[in-house]
Structures are given as C-alpha cells and as structure tokens.
Amino acid sequence: SSEADCEYPLDSYFEWQIVTMSKIINGDNLTLGTCYYPEHWPKTMWREDLERMKKTGIEVIRIAEFAWSKIEPEEGVFTYEFFDEFLADEVGMKVIFCTPTATPPAWLTEKYPEVLNARMDGVLLRHGARRHYNYNSPVYQELSARITGKSASHYAKRDCIIGWQLDNEINCEVDVFYSESDTVAFRQFLKEKYGTIDALNEAWGTAFWNQTYTDWKEVYVPRTTISDSTNPHEVLDYTRFISASARRFAKMQSDIIRRYLKPGDFITTNGLFGNLDNHAMRRESLDFMTYDSYPNFAYCLDMYSDNPKNLRDRKWSRNLTETRSVSPVFGIMEQQSGANGWNTRMEAPTPRPGQITLWTMQSIAHGADYISYFRWRTCTMGTEIYWHGILDYSSRENRRIREVHDVYEKLQGMQELAGARYEAKVGVLKDYDNIWDAQLDVWHQRVDEASQKALFEAAQRTHTPLDFVYLTETTTAEDLAGYSLLFYPHMTIVTERQAELLKQYVAAGGTLVIGCRSGYKNSTGQCVMDTLPGLLSELTGTDIPEYSFIAPDAGTVTVDWDGTTIEASVFADLLEPLGDAKLEGTYTSDYYSGSGALVCNSYGKGKAYYYGSAWNEMSAEIFLQKLGAANPYRDIVTVPEECEIAVRSKNGVRYLFVLNYEKHPVEITLHRKGTDLYTGNEIEGSQTLDGYGTMVIRL
Ligand code: GAL
Predict the structure, then answer these.
(1) Percent of the chain with pLDDT over 70
(2) Atom 10 of ligand 1: nearest residue by CA position
(3) CA–CA gap between residue 382 and residue 359 (Å, rounded)
C-alpha cells in the first residue's frame, strides 16, 4: 500500500458545527440505560429481558459494538436479519446502535493481516482478543467505512434508534501502533507537517547522536532501540500522529453516519483513553462524549490501600472532571453495576449495598444526564465471565436490580436538574502537548504526577469544586474568564498563542498560578535558550537563575510564605523577581535557603504567581486557602472531609450533591432551607447521611 491509498487525509482539522439535538442529553431528562448483547442470549430471552428492563426504569439499550460477524458473516455479504429480528421485539426501548470496528472478524484478519496492529518489535497482535487493528490500514478503513455505511443506511431512520456509538473505547487496551501501515501514514503525516526532510531533522534535533535522515524512507514509527531511548521529539510527533490517526478513523465513521442521521439523533463514543485529543475528536465527530465509569477499580487487590488518605472510588471524580472538560453535560455509557473481573484478572468485589447509587450520583453530580449500566446480565462465556452486570447468570431477582430500580425512583424527583452545569471557580489548565511530553520525559512526569494528584485531592478535601480546562486551538480568553483562580502546574511546552491567552486572562482580573519547570520547551519538545521561564517570564515577573531536583539527601525542603510554612516537593526552581514583581515565599532549607520560592506579579487587573516547586496535598490546600478559593459553599453546608460536594446549576437554581464514600454514617449541616429531591421534603440544619449515602438538595 502507498500513501496515495489513504482516502482520508490525516490533517483534517476542520470544525464540525454540531447541529443535532440528542434525545438523551437534551437538558430535559435524566435517563437510565444498559448495555445489552442479544448475540449472547437465546432469542427466547430477548423480549422478557427488554420488558424487565423497562419495569426497572431502563429506557435505552446500547447494542452491537462487537457484532461485526452478525452483520457481515463473510466478506461483502451483509445481513441485518439478526438485529432486525431483535429490534422487532424492542417494546418501545430506545436504541444506541454501534459500529462494530473494535472487533474485526476472523475472516477479515486472516485475509488481510495488514489490518492488525503490531508490537514495537513488529510481532502482529492476532485475533482472539479485541482492538487488535490499526487505524491506518487502507483496507481496514475501507471495510470499516463500508459496514458503517451499511448499518447507518439500514437503521438510522428507524424510530427506535436514537444515536450511534463509534467503535468501542477508542485507544483502550492499546494506544500505540507499530504496523507497516502506521509507518506509511506516519511519513505522510510528517511530510504534511514539515514539507522537507531538513525541517524534520531540525525539529527532531537529529544532529544529536548522528540521527540525521536523508530520505523519508528512513523514517519509521518508533522501533526497538537500545534502552528504549528513541528520540523524544520523534516520540512527541508520533503521539500526535496516533491521536490524529484515531481522530481520522472516528471522523470517517461519523461523517458517514451523519449522512443518514435523522434529526435529533446523536453520535458519540465511550471512554477517555491515552494518546488521543478527545477534545478535537469531540469537536470534529461527536455530539457529546460518554465515559465508562468503573470506580470499583479502587477496590482491586493491587490498587486498594487502607490509608485514609487514599480517595479510592472518589478518585473517579477526576475522570468525570476530565469528561466534563470535553462535554459540559455528558453521558455514562458504561456505569459499574457489578463486580469487576476477567478470567485472567481477579479485580474488584461486588459493589456494596448503596455503592451503585453512590457511583451513579457521582456521575450525575459531575454532569452526566445519561447513565447506562454495564451490563444487563453477566456473560456466561469468554474473557469477561466475571465482569458482573446488573443480573447474575441466572437472571434471578437480586439486590443490584432492586438498587437500579431505586436509582430510577430517585431520578424521578431530580428530573428538573437535567442540563444543569457543574459550577467551579477554580480550574487546572492542561493541554495535550504537555500531557504527552510528560509521558516521555521523566523530569516533567515526576513533577506533574505529584502536582496533579495533590491539587485534585486538596480540592476534594477542602470541598472546592474544580474543573480541568484545556487550552486547545479554539480556547478563547472568554472561556477562561469564568474562573477566579487557574493553576497550570507545570507548563513545560509553551506556545506564543498560549502565553498570550494567559496574559489576557490575568490582565482581565484572573489569578494564575504556575508551578516549577515551566516555559522551558518549545512545541518540538526542544529546550529553549531564553532565560527561564521563557515565554512566561514577563507575565510571571520571574527569573530562574538556578534549578535542581530536590536531592534525596536534602530532607524536607521548606518554604516560608509570609509566615506560613509549606513543603517543597520534587523540584526547586530558585527564583528572583523581575521589575515590580514581589517575592512572597522563600526557601528555608538546604543551600536553597534564602532563595526565592514564590513570586507574585501584578499584571493588569490580575495576578500571576510562579511557584518554584511541585505541590503536595498540604501545599495545594494552603494555596487554595490563601488565594481565597477553598470551600466556596461553606455558608451553605458543612460536610466532613470524607464527603464530596458538587453543585450543578440551571436557570439560577442550584442543586447541591453530597456524596458519602465511607461505610459509616456522617452528619452534615445545611445552613439554609433546601428541598431534598429524593423525598420532596424541605430540610434544614443537621442531617444524617448513611454509609455510602447521597443527597441531592435544591437550594
Ligand atoms: C469496558 C469495555 C466493555 C467491557 C468492560 C468490562 O472497558 O468497553 O466492553 O469490556 O470494560 O471489562
């Protein structure tokens, strides 16, 4: 195959104007669904299953994401007999139909082994599991486009169909691709980006270690090298390439479905995975994002920790915050309803009584209006025989189906909050280049992992709602203006456009806090030769004459911030203020003692801080407190640290969620009258929340 075979150019960044209105995420309803696999059950069970779902309160099913062979049992032979027969039984159920491209059939991979993904050393990933294809094989693109078109033309106009899921969990399981088609497409991607091989050599810094290329043919996707130390600038471009390839594959499917989509129906995909710019994929191809939420992973044998500092299932709020950054109101395509387990993985226990409700309300608190439980019934065959659904193998009435029904009843009192937006005044800025740079650069990674965890957990424990705010090609100063406080923990790569945006945000009155190791790379991932922090110097009024990892024998390195002691973590940039900027914090340990640790610069109507270190939870809490952002709802409610609070608001009305992640009951105090939406009762003052209990209160 050659590049000319690529029907869909990689560089297709044009913007979709999303015109459709969805039937489940339309601001009117909170809806329940489930994932159903008619191909796993005798036909005689279908109708009873669907009727029972409806009695339970489930109005939507997702089907067909792994069922390619039911539709195209042999190459070019298409039949919808199986799904037509199933849908004849639909009893008024709404249906999300999927493209089946996550699992190519055996006939396909046998005839066209070039569609398979490969390991870095070239060994092909074979039939037998899933997601074993690559996005760049022209024949896979063609066969995927064909089945997508066939399904869309067959089903899109049908009444029961309300939307489409593209593939399943794009970039899940494996998010690196090393097939021959990937190399061909990578070369094309690089040619479009750089034009000449000399420009590529320059961007990749190939003068180092004699890596200079003289022809595009010499360029490959990363290959096995000594000590895995492939050129970092190449790896950064390769990661961008994977993302572009996945997006193009999604867009190819979405463009086809959109030709047939009936008004009001939607296109989505599920999950958030690595090496993929989900924001761009959403803009180009999706009406909204859905996420697959399995908080029970926190109770896996190898992840569980008894340490009360471990947020456990509450950590899933971080993923939900990520999802919200992609789609302010979103869906959960797969919500935990049973134990986790594969035949090869022990994984996590059955949700305790109350946890299905807790995790459902956690999703809704963060912005989900659609919740679909994975899966209706536990599968009796295959790798996922222990990944439990609502029902066990026997279908007997159980505690979990009763709890799902109880969730449905609770939702009936909460319908008015559909479409409401999560409220946050504090944001953590991110962008994909920096996320990807942190993957390949351990200096960046160590500070980033520490700070991301610390800021999120400090915000949780101080009851400070937090958003993740991505700087994308389309972000404007207005998008940032709603936040009173923004952190960019470690903005290693900075572009002129981003620096300008941050200046506008601060000049208009915002408070920006930048952490160590910022501004030292350009978008190739090469280090800049300016004085640090490079493009952020003027805004932060900071100069960094010296920096170092905190040496392992340095002990605890402390900083005095106007009389408050905080602990520096991982790294120390030693700072000097420039111009009128003020030194607010000074190191008080080791040879750093007396050097600047925190600079504050007034810029326009706002302030920019540069903090010379990474955060731990304590220093993050102190920043939230000192900058006046912690616990903004303290006048409304007092809750213990182990509970999460969230507020969604709509038409000037606020809805307060209180979520208790602990086994034991807790007391909360409501300082004003509100309506408990589960009961409809007016409440005020002290309230008891059961273990794993939740409350939703109209304020
Ligand atoms: C998800 C996936 C489902 C199922 C589930 C449990 O990641 O989308 O198909 O595999 O996990 O393993």
Answers:
(1) 97
(2) 384
(3) 27
